[in-house]
Input
Amino acid sequence: MTLAIFDLDNTLLAGDSDHAWGEFLVEEGIVDAETYRKANDRFYQEYLNGELNIQTYLEFALQPLSIHSMNELLEWRATFMDKKVRPMLLQKAEELLNSHRARGHTLMIITATNRFVTEPIADVLGIEHLIATEPEMVNGRYTGGIAGTPSFQEGKVARLNDWLAATSESLDGAWFYSDSHNDLPLLEIVPNPIAVDPDPKLDEYAKNRGWKVMSLRG
Output
């Protein structure tokens, strides 16, 4: 099968679901507004700059999951989907996904954002295969820790290679769509790398390499 792989935030979505989840927690009064928003914004800027320490960030981002019941978390997540995620959905992204479906390609999202946030988004987009950072869970509750390798930068390649080995699939003819220079390790190894509404670093790199650059927004 031919894989069509997609980054999620600022690629298939007109925004960042990870940062938006933090904003949602602030707006709903679930976390301390001032300190949490300041940290959330700082980590997001570090991500944009290519300076994010993923372990430090995940300690911050996964901590709220560990102090609330699953029932509370699921109720909040449903509200988050309505308030924050659905306004980020893009008609052109849906058309792109459908064009790959029509060619018989297998669709996958690979994202650094954790599975708790991203799994319902993948469901809404109709994408069965999701590689996301896995929050650790023990006895039905999140611990605040990470299970396995975060799917970030080179970690996306490692996690994808694990999936390929487990499924006996390959990257022959594969596509990967991303907006971020953080995804260069994976963009470099697929036959069809596509820069989607790219950040300045990726835009320059893609043009120098002769990669296709496209927009799902304009």
